Amino acid sequence: MKFEITKNCVVTHKSYTVFVQLQDFVDWQERRKLAQNAFPYLSTADREFIISGISPDGWDQIFTEDASDES
Fold it and tell me: What is the pTM of this model?
């Protein structure tokens, strides 16, 4: 069964959605599996969103800001 994880990115505050298998989410939530083992079918960016709440766009924004701070 597919499970939808939708929440706002902590950086961009925009809604982002990832779909996972329900049992995989339960295994990860209950600390039976690490994210990379529970969700091998997701991209690294989507797994990171589940873990940290930072969407791919959020990471792009963080690194763009970091690059401009170095000048």
Answer: 0.83
Widest distance between CA atoms in the chain: 49
Domain ranges in the chain? 2-69
Residue 1 confidence (pLDDT): 86
63, 11 contact by CB (below 8 A): no
Provide the 3-class DSSP secondary structure of residue 17.
strand
Chain segment 6-30, per-residue pLDDT in tens: 999 999 999 999 999 999 999 999 9
Determine which helix (DSSP H) or strand (DSSP E) holds 59, and give its type and residue range.
helix 56-69
Phi then psi for residue 2, to 5 deg, are -75, 140
Looking up tokens 């994210």 gives 35
What is the C-alpha to C-alpha distance for residues 22 and 11, in angstroms, rounded to an integer?
26
Q: What is the DSSP letter of 5?
A: E
